[in-house]
């Protein structure tokens, strides 16, 4: 019996067309390759937040791996639903990664570390939380869409379309933010010309979001025409408008990795900054401790702290060393000497 000889309305079949095994194998290999490259770059550049794009690649790889199994075994939903869920939700991870990179670029390059008066940390947290919210909305639609009840299935489609609509809304808002960042950086280059690699990374963020937008528009058109009509029954459209944009959106960060443009101590957000300040206030510590062996090497102090703090430490070291050397202090002038000078 031919594997594609099935009825579309069967309860144990989720496919609306005969899926290609070869295409699923090809894109599983491509997503696995770019994911392995991101794992290597994650380790090489030591950017902890890059685990997010690794998750995007892993979810895409898992989705197409399940697609291979489901294409070989048409009947059964245990492999069809996971492949659909992984492929649908993987772009949300990439969205979050783009937001996190933009926040760190603002913190690293903008002197005020703000855009539109909002701090880089707050921008990152806000957009990531919004992205997680859209992910929860989209994931909640999966069980409804796979229901045998037409009303529940239709409700699931509407919920999913609302979720990706929110995702696109957040992307549009993010474009305004990124445009403002580009404007500020252009002004900074006019007054203080520097050859910084921020522009290439920013263009990669733009490219990734445009590719995700193409994929979102495809999904909106696909589900707006119904589950069994239009693009939903065309596998070529799926690969051209879903798989291809996503493989390029992930691979573009293999070419221009954030670790190339974000190098240095301020390329990451500070950890526990507020807690440390509260502890220092309680203990009455206005500056960090310096042991005597550390005071002998001021190069590290200059690199890690501000110049003013380093200069203050040097002055204090000079005072302390003077206080601990009795011979360096001149003896007090006798009182008779002052009387004698006054009489003269």
TrEMBL record:
The regions listed as transmembrane in this protein's record are 14-37, 49-69, 81-103, 115-137, 157-179, 200-221, 243-264
Q: Does the keyword Protein biosynthesis apply?
A: no
Chain spans, region Disordered: 271-344
Q: Where is the signal peptide?
A: none
Which UniProt keywords are listed? Membrane, Transmembrane, Transmembrane helix
Compartmental location: Membrane
Major location (coarse): membrane
Query: Which GO terms of the cellular component aspect does the record hold?
Result: membrane
Biased-composition ranges, Basic residues, are 274-297
Taxonomy, superkingdom: Eukaryota
Topology in the lipid bilayer is annotated as:
Multi-pass membrane protein
* Protein name according to UniProt: RTA1 domain-containing protein
**What organism is this sequence from?**
Emergomyces africanus
């Amino acid at each position: 019996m031919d594997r594609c000889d099935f009825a579309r309305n069967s309860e144990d079949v989720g496919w609306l067309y005969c899926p290609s095994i070869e295409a699923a194998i090809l894109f599983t290999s491509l997503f696995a390759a770019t994911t392995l490259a991101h794992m290597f770059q994650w380790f090489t550049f030591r950017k902890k937040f890059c685990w997010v794009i690794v998750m995007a690649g892993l979810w895409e790889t898992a989705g197409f791996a399940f697609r291979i199994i489901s294409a070989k075994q048409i009947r059964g939903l245990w492999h069809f639903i996971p492949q659909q869920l992984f492929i649908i939700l993987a772009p949300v991870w990439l969205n979050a990664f783009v937001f996190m990179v933009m926040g760190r670029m603002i913190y690293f390059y903008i002197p005020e570390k703000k855009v539109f008066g909002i701090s880089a940390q707050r921008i990152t947290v806000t957009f990531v939380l919004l992205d997680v919210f859209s992910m929860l909305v989209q994931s909640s639609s999966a069980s409804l869409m796979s229901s045998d009840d037409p009303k529940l299935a239709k409700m699931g489609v509407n919920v999913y379309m609302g979720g990706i609509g929110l995702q696109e809304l957040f992307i549009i808002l993010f474009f305004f933010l990124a445009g403002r960042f580009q404007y500020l950086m252009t002004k900074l280059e006019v007054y203080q010309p520097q050859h910084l690699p921020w522009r290439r990374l920013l263009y990669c963020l733009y490219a990734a979001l445009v590719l995700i937008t193409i994929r979102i528009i495809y999904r909106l058109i696909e589900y707006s025409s119904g589950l069994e009509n239009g693009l939903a029954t065309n596998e070529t459209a799926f690969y051209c408008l879903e798989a291809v944009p996503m493989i390029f959106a992930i691979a573009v960060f293999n070419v221009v990795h954030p670790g190339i443009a974000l190098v240095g101590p301020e390329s990451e957000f500070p950890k526990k900054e507020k807690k440390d300040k509260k502890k220092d206030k309680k203990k009455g510590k206005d500056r960090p401790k310096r042991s005597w062996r550390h005071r002998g090497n001021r190069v590290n102090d200059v690199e890690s702290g501000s110049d003013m703090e380093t200069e203050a430490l040097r002055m204090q070291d000079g005072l302390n060393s003077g206080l601990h050397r009795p011979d360096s202090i001149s003896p007090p002038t006798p009182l008779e000497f002052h009387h004698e000078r006054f009489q003269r």
